[in-house]
């Protein structure tokens, strides 16, 4: 017999009579719950009730037992057999359901007890082992949350694994204790758990965890250096009281910046570092970054900086700013912050591809860094790479690249090189925009010199020992046009003291002590009272006695060439052997050049041709 079919049949008969479950129950002296169980097939009417149901619904008992109208009548013996069968079926179904419930409760109880043990061990481990060693939970609320979980799990375990159905008083007592412990725990959590605002963040690859706690009363911010999943220790209290929001930004998986404003409105920054080359021990990041670094930002603006003895110079577009050693603060071994007037301006962090040279502590070729400005706005990360030449041994590493017997100026420092590999610094400050004219410098093993203009005076800076030592000589308030050394001791210079209307008044001077002292040997072409040079005049000495002087006119249409054979004391106009036709075409004479031991003179047509 199908109990569910019988139940549905009783339900349909009841509805045909427009009766509710309560009304039907009242007629037969039962509760509406009994009627509900019949209709859901969870129980079966007693044989004494079947007759009453049949009378109420105007059907035969056999129709109720078969669950449909029009069925054949059955004997009383068969009715009893069918009722017995239905009751057994309901009983079996009930037993299966109760078995499933018991199994579920047992499994729930076992799981709850296992989780309870785990959290209980965690809490005991924290209270008796970790807390005495200075560990804290990453969030103050966690202690009380775990307590609440333990209380709830203990209650679930108790009521699922221990049968107290027949002991109502014990159930009440256990329930009261659980509620009491929960209330006490909640009270402590409200009183102590919200004292600090906790910030917990992970790096992109979840390899490192940042934990900060801000005291809601004092505003003091605490950073925890050593964090292991739920627990943290080695705290560092930052100096300032935080006012407003705290901005965190991961530069990479090993560097996280914390930016905030203190109660005075000053911008502050702290850098949490987790990485670094442990094999190198502690090292200075600014020293590791020696060189010239460059990129183009995501907004198209060129950004670069150079690190040298002066410090770090950051250039963004046309703007340049120098940060000296005292303006640099290091965090760990992977990050530095650049300050100006105690205000943080830039953060520089080493990327994971930065590998240190074991001998020099310099970053090897291929390493990149991140540069970002300090602000409360969203961080704009700029990746820079070193454009200095890092091929070969870094013990001979040069901050800038300089060609053989040439110079470069970077960050106000003049660098020279005699072999295109090793670089030497020239003492003094030099404007990055300076370009020395050909006649005002030379880089050679015998004599290296530069003519520099400094506060109205011309200075000669020179070295006779390949940059080991340098001397600076003041040449006076004059304009040096050309300076030339025959050897390390003997040299000549052409200087102008005044220029007007295309002519210049000045001198040719000579030195015999390497440039330390200069004596006038000639002061221009002309008669005794009117000796001048041309505004475009230049000199060239082949040796101590033989030299040349050009005298081009103002418009550049022609140029005269003069020669001296007595070391510049006197000059004679040089007349070249030319045909009349050549004289009509070529009238501009340049200084001669030495090629393969011969003097070569270039003759031009001038600007009027």
Question: What can you see in these coordinates?
Answer:
This protein has 10 helices and 36 strands. It has 609 residues and is α+β, with helices and mostly antiparallel strands. The protein folds into 3 domains: 89 residues; 196 residues, no CATH class; 206 residues, no CATH class. A 9-stranded antiparallel beta sheet has the order 11-10-9-8-16-15-14-13-12. Strands 1, 2, 3, 4, 5, 6 and 7 form a 7-stranded antiparallel beta sheet that branches. Strands 24, 25, 26, 27 and 28 form a 5-stranded antiparallel beta sheet that branches. Helix 6 runs antiparallel to helix 7. The longest helix is centred in the first third of the chain and has 55 residues. It starts with a helix and ends in a 5-residue tail after the last strand. The mean pLDDT is 85.
